[in-house]
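Long-time lurker, finally posting.

We've been working with YdcF family protein (Pelomonas margarita) and I want a structural starting point before designing mutants. I don't trust myself to interpret raw outputs, so I'm hoping someone here can both generate the structure tokens and explain anything notable. Sequence follows.
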Amino acid sequence: MSFPLDYSGFKTLLLVLALPPAPMLLLAAWGGWRLKQARRGGGSLLALGLVLAWLSATEATGEALSRLAGQPPLLTPAQVDALKEQRDGAVLVLGGGVRRQAPEYGMGRPKAITAERLAYGVWLARRTGWPLGFTGGIGWTARELQQSEASIVSRVAQEDYGLPLRWAEGRSRDTRENAANTLPLLAQDGVRQVLLVTHEEHMARALRAFEAQAASLGLRIVAAPVGLRAAGPMSWDDWCPSHSGFERVRYVVYEAMARVGGR
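Top reply, 14 upvotes:
Generated this for you. Predicted structure of YdcF family protein:
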């Protein structure tokens, strides 16, 4: 089996090595090897790697990293209601991945992250009365996909929510292309402000890309983050490994890498 050395192949390899828990496990393995060779610091490195591996799968670490990266402000229901009287807006949902085939449905379906964004986008569209759009094609690493995210989500929005998409942009491969391919379509239809729906971890990168494109089109971008954690103290189980904690830490680290990489 060959491994293509194009951009998508390099990105996949980089993510495997850079995202948790790989760095922590490699650190622990190095410490274990040094310990076996009776070299100095082996036990400390092994313990540090295991502790970091534990923390990398907790909600507490994900929340701490998210706050450190800078969380976008919440769009409150009162702020949403204040937009009802305005008729120059649109709700735009950014894709986060789809499953090529969900056996229980016999067709492609949004992944959980996309489904959560779509649900919030539908809620915003109904609350404001603004039309709903979606942007997402076949990402750089989504080699298994044969349909764009937009085509799958368009069907789901119609069948599951009874709310057809006004815009369904399906050529984009990353966030910068989402902005470049979608905003001109909205501007041509008279849109002047856009509620941008994506997860809070992704919002900083999304705003950077969309605001750069919006400036020349006379569009105002309003952050509508989803997935925010309710304010309050951490509980003991937030420090225990969980699937949600693991996914959140990986997402925050991925977004930090993507901001540095400019994608």
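Before you design anything, note these points.
Residues 7-70+240-261 form one domain.
DSSP finds ten helices and seven strands in the chain.
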